[in-house]
Amino acid sequence: MLQRQLAPLIANRLQRQPAVALLGPRQVGKTTLARQVAAGMPNAVFLDLELEADRARLARPDLFFARHRDRLVVLDEVQVKPDLFTQLRPEIDAERRAGRFLLLGSASGPLLRQSAESLAGRIAYLELTPFLVAELGAAVAGHPAAAASALWLRGGFPRSFLAADDADSLAWRSDFIATFLARDLPQLGVTIPAETLRRFWRMCAHLHGQLFNASQLGAALGGVAHTTVGRYLDLLVDALVLRRLPPYLINIGKRLVKAPKVYVRDSGILHALLNLRSLDDLGGHPVAGLSWEGFVIEQILATLPPLTTAGFYRTSAGAELDLVVEQAGRRIGFEVKLSTAPTVSRGFWNACEDLGVSRAYVVAPVLEPYPLADNVEVISPLMLGQLGSG
Length: 390
Known about the structure:
Elements: H1 7-14, E1 19-23, H2 30-39, E2 45-48, H3 52-57, H4 61-67, E3 73-76, H5 84-94, E4 101-105, H6 109-119, E5 123-127, H7 144-154, H8 158-161, H9 166-187, H10 194-206, E6 210-211, H11 214-220, H12 226-238, E7 242-245, E8 261-264, H13 267-273, H14 279-283, H15 288-301, E9 309-314, E10 320-327, E11 330-336, H16 346-355, E12 359-363, E13 370-373, E14 376-379
Parallel strand pairs: 1-4, 1-5, 2-3, 3-4, 11-12, 12-14
Antiparallel strand pairs: 6-8, 7-8, 9-10, 10-11, 13-14
Helix pairs in contact: 4-5, 5-6, 7-13, 9-10, 9-13, 11-12
């Protein structure tokens, strides 16, 4: 079993806050991880709110919570009963003890809005991503590059990455896409037809890593208004399957690109949407470089500490960085290349100069790191977990 990096952080937050919300898309491993965390807590109570029997136990949540004040209560798929958030606030205030509730949810936007209104100052938020390169560890000892390639192709959803072969992995991802659209989104209150969102999602896959133009996408969807296309994007971003990466904007007197980029967050889902079945299929497809870019960016963003700003940088003159990370006034740049002998353009150096980055990394499938300049280094994605905050 692969060890999730988030496990000690969940335990830490449970020691500090009455409630912790663990967010992440369906099938990403939230329940498995929560059970591991709960196993270390005496007499933890675990309720799956998709089960009628468990929902029945919460017919009177005030009485149920009061009865279990000395135990960790884990509520899985909490978005099924959003009214619980209003019940949690008075209960936490009645017994303000750390580690009382662990809430698991499969959507970020609606959950955050519901809980922010009622649990401000009482809850910590954490997001569980699909498997990361840094989490492969001993499970791939001796074959790290091959494991990273498999993770890129299959993505990090546990049942996809750990499938017996690539065909089984693709079959699982195809089923996931169908179920997500036909069942999971309607459970979140989405009434848009599944086929409409499938077409939109596939279009985003073809435009993966490119600037988002709602008007162009609307035209491709048959004349849909740009505001409607924006709503489709919001839905899939809230459901944690698309990422809207904002531009990194600074006042330097240059014309900056201000449209966001959009990525399919899990590379395996991207490849399933594009019907790319193997590394050979992927290597020969025009999306390969941008797929690798999105894969690496997800690895980086998953490890950033709180209060970190991240976005891409691009000017009309051609200065560009795939990712800029800022924390405490310190900027770090990342450029992603799908090459074992990566080269960078003048635009990369101009962007580093514009931004005054303290350090920059070129992330590529190389075997060993090496310097390009005093503050610029070429690294493998296997090293990203060692960078910390920079």
